[in-house]
Amino acid sequence: MDQDSSQTDLFHKVIPLPLEEEIKHSYLDYAMSVIVGRALPDARDGLKPVQRRVLYAMLELGLRHNQAFKKSARVVGETMGKYHPHGDAAIYETMARLSQDFSLRYPLVDGQGNFGSIDGDPPAAMRYTEARLHSLGEEMLADIDEETVNWGPNFDESLQEPLVLPSRVPNLLVNGSTGIAVGMATNMPPHNLREVIDATCALLEDPQIELGELMALLPGPDFPTGGVILGRDGIVDAYKTGRGKVIVRGCADIEDGRRGRKAIVITEIPYMVNKTSLIETIAKGAQSGHLDGITDLRDESNREGIRVVLELHRDADPNLVLRQLYSRTQLQSTFGVINLALVDGRPRVLTLHQILQVFLDHRRAVVRRRTEHRLRKAEERAHIVEGLVRALDLIDQVIALIRSASDPASAKAALVETLGFSEVQAQAILDMRLQRLTGLERSKLEEELAQLLQDIERYRSILANPSILDGVVRGELQEIRAAYEDDRRTRIEDAVEDVSAEDLIPESEIVVVLSRDGFLRRMPLQDYRCQSRGGKGVKGASTRGEDEIALVTVTTTHRTLYLFTSRGRVFAIRGFTLPEPKTGKGKHVSTFVSLEEGERVVTLRDSRLDGARFVFFVTQRGVAKRLPVTELDGINRAGRRILGLAPEDTIARVRFTGGEDELLLTTAQGQTLRVPEGEFRPQGRTAHGVRGVRLDEGDLVVGCDVIEPGRQVLFISERGIGKRTPYDEFTAHHRGGGGVRAMKLVDRTGDLVGAWGVREDDELVVISAKGRMVRLLAGEISSLGRAATGYKVVRLDEGDEVADVSIIRCADLEEE
């Protein structure tokens, strides 16, 4: 071939490409390499590739927790030479961080020597430090030699490395992760192992468990440096959407210092805050005047923990200085949660449910593959042992065949053809030592065979029954919990700001109104003067179009308000968080709580319990249920399901009872049933309840109240007609009955709106569908028998009707 033709061939091998396209594809390849191969953790074991390779290399070196330490340089060299050719500095930094108890909530590497400090000091050189696996790190690698995970080639395809670790520990949540990739980043906080495992087991038991119930078990992050998390909203957002902002504050106490002065002592700092940097910031702030009253600053920290002492001027306000520290230094910081991890090789932002579910699916796969491996090994061994036992039964024939054979191959063939042994069994017989012919050895073989058959049966049951497999997963998680659990270090408080909004708002009585379109607002109770019976009232809630008032209750700005929904869930919000607009509807309820499609709030209830032991529910269809009041503990805006309902039914009334009360159930058509509370046995959150009252066709339950001495029952109808009736007019019956007539209803009355137990000095807030509100004394309403119709309580405009009534207890007002 001449020179011209070779140049022509070379020219045809050059492929012209647009520079923009080439840069785009090359950068995407680089970005995916960083995302998948370096920066992001796998959602199953919570490890990045370099972390996984370090732990596996330590296992290969035999550096178990009960073995001697070895030089860190040995581990780094093993990892770099076999699995991670990206430089010794990165590998050593990774191993050092895995051993730092201020970086990881539960270290996976046990380090000996200087591996850095919370002051930002770097680790000593790898030739000076030593390391071995921590016992929890070994749990990450447990069963890796039993075909539990997939393997892939290392960088030069000379070795195989695990693509994920079996990980008995839910490490992604337990230790968290941080990493910056290309165009994305992960920042996951650590958690308490006991709480994570409890939540994992709860999800294993009930795959449909709600977020509120999970958060009762796993309330939030648990940082290795302790501190205080301010507010739960950021935690709820992070668990619900995968992103959220968690405000973390260090712990500081005010102590008596020298010469009668006060001192602020910092004992815990926020996670990932450098203590030296914090002290420098405080010193600069004291010099510049941003921090008032600090005269001396000492770092008295030691092995026992952090202790930074700030001595103050004699006339300094320590609480003011503390607030300044929180607002102007890193003593309070924000941890931005981004739950980003690799799922099936792709980056995904995960909710709490998804993180736990990915780990559970991984553990199920590991247990299944391990069981299949053990089953195969047990069956292979059982096959051999069966052959050995049978050979002992035919020992004379076996010996004769072997002695007559010319070589081992002939002996093996004779055993297979003449006595029916398999080739594996025949080889095992030829390899058998003569000592196996003793009676003791024979019994050992029989015992081994019995144990193998028992193991095979157990392995097959695990593989055949998903519930048994889940039981194995649960049992192993409980073993980890028992071995490594400890107490929570980070406290979680409801306050969000340096000075909480609650402290800035005086406690006052408010009227909370929910419109039929779902808008919430609050109004001062004092705006509604007490009026005489028959008054027309004042304009209490601005409505637009057909948006009429649905619910109203009286509470205070500092109390919690329970919102019970039509789907049997309950949410909790604070009174001061509700808007108080001068005009307009307020804010939609979905701003405060997350409702499902078609779900609506049916009852508002002040959280003041006054010694109540149970929550009593009655639905519009007459179904009743008694729930222990402790089931409401810890409820927040994430919500919790507390009643199972039929699809067409909704909650009508919610009452708090003492355990031995009597209840009066009232229907829209004027029937009333008095029934002892004991007729309804307490039930759990998932129960559907029992029949409370028998209803006629078209009738609905509109009232339920606790009978108390000194009260009468107040009935009010849609047209504003009402009366009070003594409880003695109603005799007690068993649950499920139809009750007796409570009030004579005619065209001018309309159906009953509800029934409430009142004293004469109690006050009523009556609100109409068009937003008119009247406040009056209960004693002004006539006391009549149950057969009477009653008198006009509130005068309504044409086309208006009573929407709801809220009772203001005189005892409550006196106490407040």
UniProtKB/TrEMBL annotation:
<comment type="subunit">
    <text>Heterotetramer, composed of two GyrA and two GyrB chains. In the heterotetramer, GyrA contains the active site tyrosine that forms a transient covalent intermediate with DNA, while GyrB binds cofactors and catalyzes ATP hydrolysis.</text>
</comment>
<dbReference type="GO" id="GO:0003677">
    <property type="term" value="F:DNA binding"/>
</dbReference>
<dbReference type="Pfam" id="PF03989">
    <property type="entry name" value="DNA_gyraseA_C"/>
</dbReference>
<dbReference type="InterPro" id="IPR035516">
    <property type="entry name" value="Gyrase/topoIV_suA_C"/>
</dbReference>
<comment type="similarity">
    <text>Belongs to the type II topoisomerase GyrA/ParC subunit family.</text>
</comment>
<dbReference type="InterPro" id="IPR050220">
    <property type="entry name" value="Type_II_DNA_Topoisomerases"/>
</dbReference>
<keyword id="KW-0413">Isomerase</keyword>
<feature type="domain" description="Topo IIA-type catalytic">
    <location>
        <begin position="40"/>
        <end position="504"/>
    </location>
</feature>
<dbReference type="InterPro" id="IPR006691">
    <property type="entry name" value="GyrA/parC_rep"/>
</dbReference>
<dbReference type="InterPro" id="IPR005743">
    <property type="entry name" value="GyrA"/>
</dbReference>
<protein>
    <recommendedName>
        <fullName>DNA gyrase subunit A</fullName>
        <ecNumber>5.6.2.2</ecNumber>
    </recommendedName>
</protein>
<feature type="active site" description="O-(5'-phospho-DNA)-tyrosine intermediate">
    <location>
        <position position="128"/>
    </location>
</feature>
<dbReference type="GO" id="GO:0009330">
    <property type="term" value="C:DNA topoisomerase type II (double strand cut, ATP-hydrolyzing) complex"/>
</dbReference>
<dbReference type="InterPro" id="IPR013758">
    <property type="entry name" value="Topo_IIA_A/C_ab"/>
</dbReference>
<keyword id="KW-0067">ATP-binding</keyword>
<keyword id="KW-0799">Topoisomerase</keyword>
<dbReference type="GO" id="GO:0006261">
    <property type="term" value="P:DNA-templated DNA replication"/>
</dbReference>
<dbReference type="InterPro" id="IPR013757">
    <property type="entry name" value="Topo_IIA_A_a_sf"/>
</dbReference>
<keyword id="KW-0547">Nucleotide-binding</keyword>
<dbReference type="GO" id="GO:0005694">
    <property type="term" value="C:chromosome"/>
</dbReference>
<dbReference type="GO" id="GO:0005737">
    <property type="term" value="C:cytoplasm"/>
</dbReference>
<keyword id="KW-0238">DNA-binding</keyword>
<dbReference type="InterPro" id="IPR013760">
    <property type="entry name" value="Topo_IIA-like_dom_sf"/>
</dbReference>
<keyword id="KW-0963">Cytoplasm</keyword>
<comment type="function">
    <text>A type II topoisomerase that negatively supercoils closed circular double-stranded (ds) DNA in an ATP-dependent manner to modulate DNA topology and maintain chromosomes in an underwound state. Negative supercoiling favors strand separation, and DNA replication, transcription, recombination and repair, all of which involve strand separation. Also able to catalyze the interconversion of other topological isomers of dsDNA rings, including catenanes and knotted rings. Type II topoisomerases break and join 2 DNA strands simultaneously in an ATP-dependent manner.</text>
</comment>
<dbReference type="GO" id="GO:0006265">
    <property type="term" value="P:DNA topological change"/>
</dbReference>
<dbReference type="GO" id="GO:0034335">
    <property type="term" value="F:DNA negative supercoiling activity"/>
</dbReference>
<dbReference type="GO" id="GO:0005524">
    <property type="term" value="F:ATP binding"/>
</dbReference>
<dbReference type="Pfam" id="PF00521">
    <property type="entry name" value="DNA_topoisoIV"/>
</dbReference>
<dbReference type="InterPro" id="IPR002205">
    <property type="entry name" value="Topo_IIA_dom_A"/>
</dbReference>
